[in-house]
Amino acid sequence: MGLDGERLIARLPAVRGRLEPEFKLADITWFRTGGPAEILFAPADEDDLAEFLAGLPGDVPVSVIGIASNLLVRDGGVPGVVVRLGRGFGAIAVEEGFRIRAGAAVPDVRVARFALDHGIAKLTFLRGIPGSIGGALRMNGGAYGRETRDVLVEAGAVDRKGNKRVLSNADMQFAYRHCGAPDDLIFTEALLAGEAGDAAEIEREMHDITTAREATQPVKSRTGGSTFKNPDGAKAWELIDKAGLRGFAVGRARVSEMHCNFLINEGGASAADLEELGETIRRRVMETSGVMLEWEIKRIGVPAGGGAAP
Ligand SMILES: Cc1cc2nc3c(=O)[nH]c(=O)nc-3n(C[C@H](O)[C@H](O)[C@H](O)COP(=O)(O)OP(=O)(O)OC[C@H]3O[C@@H](n4cnc5c(N)ncnc54)[C@H](O)[C@@H]3O)c2cc1C
């Protein structure tokens, strides 16, 4: 059955934020492709989110997206409610002990700059991740030798029933590009611990990260970042290169020439093209190296026509 946002909206609790039926997610995903959210919910603040979830009928699926920089939305769209945190989750402040409290909607890059402005070191790596704090928590985002688990003190969240929770670093059960906290949690903020630093040195590090990224990643393309996790003891891009797939394409979806672990929408690629390209890579790498790559990119929603996800 197809999506019917107008029908679903009538069953939803009243909110102070915005509810939009049939919201075109392709406008906001980095890949610039994929179907709509049946309903997009942008809560006004944490109370609005919690009250909405508490009153939401149990059969309505809920997903959450951040800046959609590690996300492939399938062409048939996402059934149920897609939560996207906005301005009400955009606060950022310094706390005692070189700590920074940031709302889940704050871009990682902004946290890195804010830390620089306050002479706080250790958070510079966030300059290399083009997502939000919510995404960094769920993905254990990391770059240049540091990841979210190295700096997280605690995270605020709301569960599917609308209960507010605070999770310690241990509660998050972080692993490489993975957070083992329950899937239904929507993270609302993070408390991050930096340390005293020298502003000139932090600025130099930021500059080096920016330069390195631009030289090695297709940061100006329609992409979803690293497609696959690096398997133990190997680099995903090397295995893909070894399989002869640099530049390989399915329709308008292509393996980046610059960085083989990035897929590019060259304009007009469907999510199905990108997913098929990814699955072809997995098959070929299995044949050439005996390794089954694991998707790092999160895939959500249903294929065109509303069938079951592959
Ligand atoms: C050019 C490029 C370079 C990149 N380089 C890096 C890199 O160096 N290191 C790295 O780690 N990543 C990198 N990425 C991937 C991506 O930026 C990170 O995974 C980032 O943390 C995703 O954040 P997001 O807000 O875009 O999340 P989304 O892509 O929107 O979502 C990713 C996952 O996080 C979940 N999520 C998002 N917000 C919340 C929330 N508030 N509560 C609960 N779950 C939530 C979503 O449900 C989904 O499962 C890169 C991506 C691109 C496009």
Briefly characterize the structure.
With 310 residues, this protein is an alpha+beta fold. The chain contains seven helices and 21 strands. The chain has helices spanning 5-9, 46-55, 108-117, 133-139, 199-216, 236-242, 271-289; strands at residues 18-24, 36-42, 62-65, 71-73, 78-84, 92-95, 99-103, 120-121, 142-143, 146-147, 152-158, 164-168, 174-175, 178-179, 186-193, 195-196, 223-226, 249-250, 253-255, 262-265, 298-300.
What would you note in describing this structure?
With 310 residues, the protein is an alpha+beta fold. The chain is built from seven helices and 21 strands. The protein is 25% helix and 27% strand. The strands form seven sheets. The chain has a five-stranded antiparallel beta sheet. β19 and β20 form a beta hairpin. The protein is globular, with a radius of gyration of 20 Å. The two termini are 17 Å apart. The model has no long low-confidence stretch (mean pLDDT 96). The site of flavin-adenine dinucleotide (FAD) has 33 residues, from β3, α4, β9, β15 and β17.
